[in-house]
Design goal:
The chain is mainly β. It contains no helices and 30 strands. The strands form eight sheets. The chain has a four-stranded antiparallel β-sheet, with no helix packed on it.
């Protein structure tokens, strides 16, 4: 198990978690406590050469519980090829949506089953199962008393023909289950973000090969507002500042971009960093707004260069300035939370420098 040694000024390492190919960090709180759920892509296979898309994907997702200033192992969920876990609540009911990209140890099957669980009597019980193809992310959002669950999925792999639906899509809650609501044409979905601003509702969708997009609610469905016609889309984040709606967009192959909404389109305001950015984590700190640019890899899946640092930026004068870098290892996600007035950040790390899955994820105290 490779460990991460971080001495960044804005973060202080508190704990390392023994994860393998960690792909996301989902922190949530209930009347049972504060929890961290970590989907895991794969574990290393002894004797197998390093390959970021290899390994044994028939793994579980650990769920940790906060105790005495640390996370302790609490329970697990079955989740082969784990990519995402999304916690949300509807009318007092608690749910956890699980998405995995594949099953098997090679060859792999990208036709899998995504599951929405409900917490019943302190146990996660399957509520609904969905046939999916190369599933990457669930994203829950609500507006006007309506509750949606978005699924980002799909991949383009030579010789692989999907048997399950491959389109990224939206489902709507009908009071007991999620029903199909809308589909999108992207071939390799990764991520979603949602914002309500000025009486309008916006949904951003990141796609690796079909162009990423921002959609606007027209009263009946989401329609295209703006297309970002480039490969490598990974993540969006919306935020409000100075009375305006702003958006961050991470592209793994190029850079991260800051946009400002002018009422009709999102206008480029700043280009941030270089290739390798995979996720974005906004943090309301004691000294202003920050965001963590989570850095994963550069190069290609067959010859990746594992990124060994992620970056922290601070909002100042309508732009973000780099204020710190800290050690990560093929990082895939970050989540922030507060306990007793102290802000923490947890980062999921997916790959060691030698392209192995066995690398710890890390809990930090945030000092900003």
């Amino acid at each position: 198990m490779a460990n991460i040694d971080s001495r960044g000024g804005l973060v202080t390492q508190i704990q390392q978690l023994a994860t393998t190919g960690a792909r996301a960090a989902e922190v949530f709180a209930t009347d049972e406590g504060i929890f961290l759920a970590v989907p895991q892509l794969a574990r290393d296979v002894p004797g197998e050469p390093p390959y970021m898309n290899g390994g044994d994907s028939d793994v579980e997702a650990p769920i940790y519980r906060w105790q005495d200033g640390r996370f302790v192992e609490y329970e697990t969920l079955p989740l082969s090829g784990g990519e995402d876990l999304e916690y949300f609540e509807i009318d007092g009911r608690r749910f956890l949506a699980a998405a995995g990209i594949r099953t098997g140890k090679g060859p792999y099957n990208l036709d899998t089953e995504a599951v929405v669980y409900e917490r019943v009597s302190h146990v996660w019980v399957p509520l609904q199962r969905f046939p999916v193809f190369a599933a990457k992310q669930w994203f829950a959002f609500s507006f006007e008393s309506r509750h949606f669950l978005a699924l980002a999925q799909g991949a383009v792999v030579d010789g692989v023909v999907p048997r399950h639906p491959r389109q990224s899509c939206l489902f709507e809650w009908n009071g007991e289950r999620f029903e199909p609501f809308q589909t999108f044409e992207g071939l390799w979905g990764y991520n979603w973000a949602f914002a309500s601003f000025g009486g309008e509702h916006y949904l951003a969708y990141a796609d690796h090969v079909s162009g990423s997009s921002v959609l606007r609610w027209d009263g009946e469905k989401f329609v295209l507002l703006q297309l970002f016609d480039e490969n490598g889309g990974r993540a969006f984040q919306f935020f409000e500042a100075d009375g305006a709606l702003w958006m961050l967009y991470a592209n793994l192959l190029e850079h991260t971009t800051l946009y400002r909404f002018d009422g009709n389109r999102f206008i480029v305001m700043q280009k941030i960093g270089g290739p390798g950015g995979r996720e974005l984590c906004l943090i309301d700190g004691d000294h202003g707004l920050y965001f963590v640019r989570v850095c994963f890899i550069t190069g290609t899946p067959k010859t990746p260069v594992v990124e060994l640092q992620s970056e922290i930026f601070r909002w100042r004068d309508d732009r973000f300035e780099l204020v710190d870098e800290f050690a990560t290892s093929g990082a895939t996600d970050a989540a922030s939370f507060t306990v007793g007035g102290q802000r923490y950040v947890v980062v999921s790390n997916a790959l060691s420098e030698s392209v192995r899955f066995s690398v710890s994820s890390t809990l930090y105290r945030f000092n900003g």
